[in-house]
Design a protein that fits this description.
Helices cover 38% and strands 23% of the residues. The chain is of the alpha/beta class. The strands form two sheets. Strands 2-1-3-4-5-10 form a six-stranded parallel sheet, with helices on both faces. α1 packs across α7, α3 runs parallel beside α4 and α5 packs parallel to α6. The chain is elongated. The structure holds nicotinamide-adenine-dinucleotide.
């Protein structure tokens, strides 16, 4: 697969390392220093790539993606913390000839965890003696809190039991790659569902799998559609 990478930070480097081990061809890497206003996202620079992976910063991701939509590129984006502009970006991809697959989390394990959480939450519906909470922890450089995945987890629990409001807590410290926990606590017992990432490799692997799947597609797609079939 011929890929272009926009963003050369921790995730960009994890993707590069994994792509090299899979014999994917890295056509170009566009760094923040050269692309402050999106000026490097041109057909000249990107034409040789079959798919673009975008892992940058919430303040620039919409700008990057709107430019990539104009170029008609298939794009996998994992940048978090800008969900309020996602509808505008998705509309640009829908109107053009490109393709977008954005996910706040490219770990397969996290998506199975979210499905399991929805089943657990449905089981606790109507049992107020059990109080739920979400705890998530990430490294100190992560900008958004709660994480996009914690928000998804919160939405899954609320969807299963709309009457409940509950705490969602975030820790930003050290080098933690990512931990999410959903707990139900009562006077007599505690039940927890936990996901821990030991590194960035699962996110890089999921992003490259999504890139492979997106080649040749048009429009807006969800990672869940790729993992679980078109019905999501
Ligand atoms: P990072 O801070 O290590 O790297 C971000 C990089 O983006 C920096 O190198 C910066 O120079 C670059 N950048 C900034 N503006 C740019 C621009 N206009 N063009 C090109 N590059 C630009 O962050 P990270 O840990 O690599 O994470 C990046 C994003 O991915 C964050 O939003 C993070 O939350 C998210 N993330 C998503 C997943 C997932 O599975 N979806 C997993 C981990 C991290």
């Amino acid at each position: 697969m011929r890929i272009a990478l926009v963003g050369n930070g921790r995730m960009g480097q994890a993707i590069q390392a994994l792509a090299a081990s899979r014999d994917d061809e890295l056509v170009t890497v566009i760094s923040g220093e050269e692309n402050r206003s999106g000026e490097m996202l041109t057909a000249d620079r990107l034409d040789a790539a079959e798919v673009v992976l975008e892992f940058t910063h919430p303040t620039v991701a919409p700008m990057n993606l709107l430019r990539l939509a104009q170029l008609g590129m298939p794009v996998v984006s994992g940048t978090t913390g800008w969900s309020e502009r996602l509808p505008e970006v998705e509309a640009a991809f829908t109107a053009g000839t490109g393709a977008l697959l954005h996910s706040a989390n490219f770990s397969v394990g996290v998506h199975l965890f979210l499905r399991a959480a929805a089943v657990v939450a449905a089981g606790f519906k109507g049992r107020p003696e059990y109080e739920e909470f979400i705890l998530e922890a990430h490294h100190k450089h992560k900008l958004d809190a709660p994480s996009g995945t914690a928000l998804r987890l919160q939405a899954a629990v609320r969807h299963a039991d709309r009457d409940r409001d509950f705490p969602v807590s975030s820790i930003r410290a050290g080098a933690i790659a990512g931990m999410h926990r959903l707990s139900y606590d009562s006077a007599g017992e505690s039940i927890s569902l936990n996901h821990t990432a030991r590194g960035r490799e699962p996110f890089a692997a999921g992003a490259l799998a999504a890139a492979d799947w997106l080649r040749g597609r048009r429009g807006v797609h969800r990672f869940e559609a790729m993992l679980f079939g078109e019905e999501g």
